[in-house]
């Protein structure tokens, strides 16, 4: 029997105490829409201790604690694409991401823009949906 070529598995581990359910679900949905038949599954993994880690086939591609912020969706798509399908075009998401890891671009502090309903507890007085880096939640401290 031939060995089946498995499509990549993307995991989003998120802190349930911090109430990052909607953010993780929104990111999973965006990844499924973008990568369509290029990924085999996108898994949501409940965690704790303010964790927000994205892995492809078990390898970490983004860790919120390491970067001090959530990934921009465009940035996350590029990181995952570079692992699973480097030749794949991402359309408007292929333009350079303005971040500290991208020298030569604007020197601005990156933020993640998500719909306010998705941002959940992170957005209180900000109707534009701009989410600043999240502090540790009281449950996880």
Automatic annotation (TrEMBL):
Claim: GTP-binding is one of the keywords in the record: no
InterPro entries (UniProt xref): Selenoprotein_Rdx-typ, Thioredoxin-like_sf
Keyword line: Redox-active center
Chain spans, region Disordered: 119-141
Record has Transcription as a keyword: no
Record Pfam families: Rdx
Record protein name field: Selenoprotein W-related protein
